[in-house]
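How a chain folds remains the central question behind the approach discussed here. No coordinates are needed to read the tokens, only the vocabulary itself. For completeness, the protein is quoted in full, as a sequence line and a line of structure tokens:
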Amino acid sequence: MPKTGPLAVIDPGPEIDRHKKHVVVLVEEANSFAIRSEADYSDAADLIRDLADRYDRIEAARTDLTKPLNEVLKKINAAFKPMQNEIDAAKKRVRGLMTAWTIKKRQEAEQLAAKQRTAQAEMGMAVTAVVADPAQPQGVATRKDLKYEVTDIEKVPLDFITVDDKLVREALKKGETIPGIRSWVEESVVVKR
């Protein structure tokens, strides 16, 4: 495969090292922090802000390094995806033809076996005709996948029903009461920057 040229490889080491020093100090401070007074509580809020600020700086540095690579990757994927989609559609079509052929051959074999069983029974012989799956080329096999559809949701046992978390949260935020669901509020501290 021809190469279009090397991508510039950026060594993230110096950028990582620059942030790592700050992370170590902040994490050590957070791990040893204790709140024993109002002043400590206020200091904790400042520490949360410092941690959040460092996180944002790290994310900005990471994005600066990865954004150009992601843009190139998007362009490459966009160029190849239509061809892959065409190939997938072609494979699906040919597999469909092969499946239809296999089913047709199996049905023909079943009909022949039924005729043979009838003839054997009429002649008083032991019925021995069996149906074998049609021969497949090397490397080809048939697979049977179990499929289903819901025909009456009210008859489906509850064990098979999933609660839609997003829908429940939206209803609860609107103040709706949902039978069978208990809701409560858990409090946590949020520190604004």
Observations:
- The chain is about 60% helix and 0% strand.
- The chain has a mean pLDDT of 89.
- Residues 59 and 139 are 48 Å apart (CA to CA).
- The two ends are 51 Å apart (CA to CA).
